[in-house]
Amino acid sequence: MKRLFIACVAVVLIGCAKQTDPTMDRSDFVLITDVVPDAILEIRYYSTYNFLGARVEGYNAPVALLTRQAADSLKVVNDELKAQGYYLKIWDAYRPQRAVNHFIRWAEDLQDTTMKSVFYPMVDKSLLFEQGYIFARSGHSRGSTVDLTLVDASTGKELDMGSPFDWFGIESHPDYMGGPLKEDGKWGRIRKNRQILWDAMLRHGFTMLDSEWWHFTLVDEPYPDTYFDFPIE
């Protein structure tokens, strides 16, 4: 009977192990503000001021998470930029897969254009997938991607980067040189502002996305093939 009991326990434990979902494992994630206490948080998807016009599924608290490795690298970036008179402002970091699924459902609902005038006035919503603004997967869900900008420590204001965060348009591309959002004469200063951020991020282990000046991913991200889905709490 004792051997039978042990065998049954072993079967149960093996069954539980098989049911473990790695995408729900948050053990290697940290709050950014625990590592970079100077960071300013404006978590857009926790609020309703975003391209959906609603709080996004999975954002249960206005906090930002990253893998430990990405957060440690971001701290080095922050220390360098703070010495130059800037703070980091973070709009998004780890993003659960359920949030990405929410984006997809929203994009498929062509009748919901509540925030079109703010975030995508020049793009037809039916083209968001085709033009690469919405994807079924996001690097954010792997835990080592962050969306951020710079704040001038002396004024408390964001640096002018030429387009708002989550602007669906060519002005958000890092290589854009000027156009309808700003008169051409300002783009030299805008490029300098962007370059301050880019230089620090790239120098300390991050790489850029070619369509969003605010988007950076740790080059040696620890989970390149895992798309996590635990909620932000």
Description of the molecule:
- This protein is α+β, with helices and mostly antiparallel strands and 233 residues long.
- 30% of the residues lie in helices and 15% in strands.
- The chain has a 5-stranded mixed β-sheet with strand order 2-4-5-7-6, with helices on one face.
- Mean pLDDT is 91; it is low at 1-18.
Core attributes:
233 residues, five-stranded mixed beta sheet, disordered N terminus, two-stranded antiparallel ribbon, alpha+beta
Describe the structure concisely.
This protein is of the alpha+beta class and 233 residues long. Helix content is 30%, strand content 15%.
Computed over alpha carbons, the radius of gyration is 20 Å
Shape: globular
Taking the sheet with the most strands, its summary is: 5 strands, mixed
The spatial strand order of the largest sheet comes to 2-4-5-7-6
Helical segment tally?
Answer: 6
**Spatial separation of the terminal alpha carbons:** 45 Å
- Structural class, by secondary structure, is alpha+beta
Can you write the helix and strand succession as a string?
A: HEHEEHEHHEHEE
Question: Which secondary structure elements does this structure contain, and how are they paired or packed?
Answer:
Blueprint lengths: L1 H18 L9 E3 H4 L4 E2 L23 E3 H16 L2 E7 L4 H12 L7 H4 L25 E8 L34 H17 L2 E4 L2 E7 L15
Parallel strand pairs: 2-4
Antiparallel strand pairs: 1-3, 4-5, 5-7, 6-7
